[in-house]
């Protein structure tokens, strides 16, 4: 694994057209990393800079996954569920109910080569189930009511993400699953707090992407596999200054 201040990384990004994946690809390209961006359909505009666009209608295909992750130092899974109305879980879910678990299984199998170890970074959730055991009683009851009674689709996505984390925990890989509480399309700030307890604060997709890159570049991120990510305070780490020129990148 390269160091944060050493040579550049080779990254493969699944979900490159999504709200978080778009930012991951843009930030990584701005920082000089080699990026392979995976899309299920051709993107309306090509990825930025030297990033390579790879298109497949089936991200679960083992042969494709093996090719897509070959040579990667870090693999990012930033896929998200699709609904009949974009980002509206009150409408019908149009993606597979086991989207995250199936992709995790596919990537774990593709990344088992001990001669080419890579880090796998995924996006999970802190509000839909996986983080219930590190949440206070009040927020836990509130979120449970919301995802079971008000918006049942959120509960279905939460169960899928919990299953994904279970697959990752049993994989033997160097893996991480970031747990945002609520996502917004706000700006990139570079102020992110990663903790093992839930703070009920929304965070922008751009800042989640920023944290993914920080985790990708860290040679020794530590044992915390499922950090809850929320807005932080104080001076942003060095990476914020390095990416300030691209801070206006928008989520789709």
Question: Features of this protein?
Answer:
single chain, 252 residues, alpha/beta, Rossmann fold, 8-stranded mixed beta sheet, two-stranded parallel ribbon, 7 helices, disordered N terminus, disordered C terminus
What does this structure look like?
This protein has 7 helices and 10 strands. The longest helix is centred in the middle third of the chain and has 18 residues, at about 150-170. It has a single domain, classed as 3-Layer(aba) Sandwich (Rossmann fold). The radius of gyration is 17 Å and the shape is globular. The chain has about 250 residues and is α/β, with parallel strands linked by helices. Helix 3 links the parallel strand 4 and strand 5 (about 120-125). The strands form 2 sheets. The chain has an 8-stranded mixed beta sheet with strand order 3-2-1-4-5-6-10-8, with helices on both faces. A two-stranded parallel ribbon has the order 7-9.
Question: Secondary-structure map with pairings?
Answer:
Layout: E1 10-14, H1 19-30, E2 34-39, E3 52-55, H2 62-69, E4 74-77, H3 99-110, E5 119-123, H4 137-150, H5 152-169, E6 174-180, E7 182-184, E8 192-195, E9 202-204, H6 205-217, E10 228-231, H7 238-242
Parallel strand pairs: 1-2, 1-4, 2-3, 4-5, 5-6, 6-10, 7-9
Antiparallel strand pairs: 8-10
